[in-house]
Design a protein that fits this description.
Length: about 525
Amino acid sequence: MPDGGRSIAEVAVKGTIMRKLPRKVDVLEGENAAFCVEVEKEEMDIHWYKDGTELRETHQTILKSFGRTHILVFVNTMPQDSGLVTFLVGRSKTSSQLRVKAARHCPPSCPVGVQINTERANAALLSWVPAQDSRKNPPSGYVLERQEVGTGSQEWLQCLTTDSATSVEILGDSVPCEADYRFRICSVNKYGKSNNVEFPRAVHLVPVARIQAPLQDALVPEGQDASFSIELSASVIGTWFLNGTQLQEDERFSMRRSRTHQSLRIRGVRDSDNGAEITFIAYGIRDSAALYIQVCLWFGRAYLCYLFNWNFEMSLGKKICSLLSFIQFITSHKKVVFLLSAPLVKFSPLSEMDRNKFVEIGNPIVLYCELSDPAAPVHWYKNGMELQTMEGLHIQSEGTMRRIVIQSAEFTHSGVYCCDAIDDVIRFNVEVEAPPVRFSAIPDDERNKTIQIGCPVVLQCELSDPSAQVHWYKDGSKLHPQTGSNGTLRRLKIPSAELLHSGLYSCETSDDTIHFTVDIKGDFSYQNFDS
């Protein structure tokens, strides 16, 4: 039988039982065993037994009667279902020996046709095909494992299991750290697993990290080392910048990465480093901090110390918290003079949305912040370079509000902007994006064409961006004709229509898709695409 069961065993006889059970019924484990008896009259009192125990209907034992015909079915038999099946009606009975043969318990064969597709950024599409004997020896699932390349470790780690799918997409966010990864797969069932099959090449994946502990501004005495560190939620490869210039490992700069912890050490900071911007950039991460230099100058018998940290804790245990202009300490016949500033100027906190701007090209860029002191001067910087008011860029100050306005955004305006009030710095991340490419609306008669065989087919659409690239598809398959392009117009032309040119055509950009339906009338079979 198509469902895996054996044919109903029937034997025709004379008497009260018109059709008796066969002497024996043999089935394989997992198949259905069916028994059929026909009696002399309808609505007779009948009973089914197995090994002397009367049977009742369950999800695995089916009892049915149709007039004079009575049926018993054991579903998904197992070896322990073997036994003597008896049908009883009045004083007549018929019996059959049920024998369930155990199936061979084998692990499944390994999958075949493994492929890896890396067209999508930071992802890998893995696909495979079940083995040819999968119907005879089916797997209950598949186990996928990964291995990090280049670490010296040969360990394979399980990354996922799937019951019936024959393709999965591995995203960068599913791996623990940024690295090149290899993948392999095996089939499994309750009797074991197949050999592993490795996918043909490695893929570079980057987890989506988040900042757990951000960079902190540093106040460092001149000549000493400055340290910056950032803690992330995942291990990724990052890059350090000083005033917009990428840093390389050398005698002065030392960079370390330990899983989720990234650090930078600058040896022997100088007076010229004061106010420098330190930036860390990784996949989906950008954070910055400022470096301030504490300078001590010798004038005769006095030290003049510029303190950039209010409430600075002195080594003698004296805390400076006065608004006096100078505080003098005389020890060992030496006068130490500390120059104090007014209370620190601070920026009011801004939301993530206000500090991270995504602006379409051509739209204005407005960055604003609010100070605690309306008289405090500020300086604006982009990627470490100071900005000045110029055509198309305006720096404004109104009370406690400080603002920079760029009238028309261009790609070159992307970057990190800083408003520096000496005591405090606030940073803005600006990303200038191209507007989405859209198709202009087309009348229905232009999108749904009925063409006579032999006539040309011309499909035409108009884009919002004349430089945008498009791809043409027919019934989901990519076409490779030389298509026409004239400014914002995109055109596909078939010089001589044939039946096989009928179908659904689409023109696609990265942001939009437009569809055409073509119906060819006639009977022909030669295909030719041209511009």
